[in-house]
Fold this sequence. Notes:
The chain is α/β, with parallel strands linked by helices and 331 residues long. It contains 12 helices and 12 strands. The strands form 2 sheets. Strands 3-2-1-4-5-6-7 form a 7-stranded parallel beta sheet, with helices on both faces. The protein is globular.
Amino acid sequence: MRKLYFLLPGTDGRFACGGLWAELKALKLAQNFCSADVVTYRQREKDKLFLDDLLKEKNLNDVIFVISWGFDIAQLVAKLKQYNVVYHAHSAGYPFRLPPSIPIVTVSRYTMGYWGEKSPNSLIYYLPNQISDEFQNLGLERDIDVLVQARKSSEYLIKELIPGLQKRCKVLVVDSYIEDLPGLFNRAKVYLYDSAEYWVQQRVSEGFGLQPMEALASGCQVFSSVNGGLADYLDPGFNCYKIAGYSQEYDVQRILKVIDSSVAFSLSEEFFAEYRTENIINRFQVILDELNEFFDHKIEQPSNIKSLTRVRVAKLIAQRIYGKLRKKYFK
């Protein structure tokens, strides 16, 4: 089995974000059954490999480079074209295309569907992000009515809905790193998440949306947008509520109703099993076995399936129109 090198621009505070934490989690999960390390490529870090140094080695056929940092993918693909490369796709919508020689591992079914359309000749797999076992409903007293994390929140949420709620209930807005997020989720009755506006501005989409899932696992009632990968698991009316629904007054009415309800909220652990450690490790092993088999095949066989380029699409459309006209007028 080939060794995995997870390529990251860096791992310190400058690059801190959900994508970095998710990739480091994936690395730790991989280390349960194979050899895997971090390799940085923008900045050198103590006790970590640096990509330019690594590429000086002559034989790298026994390794797989895992790339994931969206805005760097095009550059990394060009740099690593002679090696075994896998794209770990978190978000969708970046302006690059991938050759069939690069398999794609997606974190959500939404992202898998996106790449299934954009790269129909690539191998594509689904490996969801991990929900850590620490996110559990501890049955504690919930002294926070509404919890909001400011990052990624919409203007409506911060400037309109929250001020309206603060007049009626206890609201906590967090705008910095939280050391004990499971503990905070276990203190909150309702968690608000509205990222649709943020991702539209970024011109890419929500690949998974970890926080609403973590909040649900901790026993919070969730009011959320359902854009992108959030639609994988959020089901308004059944396990959550759709936020920004028609009017601010209606949002406030629904949130206060949930806060005042005496019915305890809890989803079964079966709902979260797909995202827990055991299932992800099992899926990861199956995927990696197939990737190793593919890279063995690639050594002997070049790709020979026609790509769905713009020129070919135009040709196929022209053929379809011609076929219809011929059928209609030249029977």
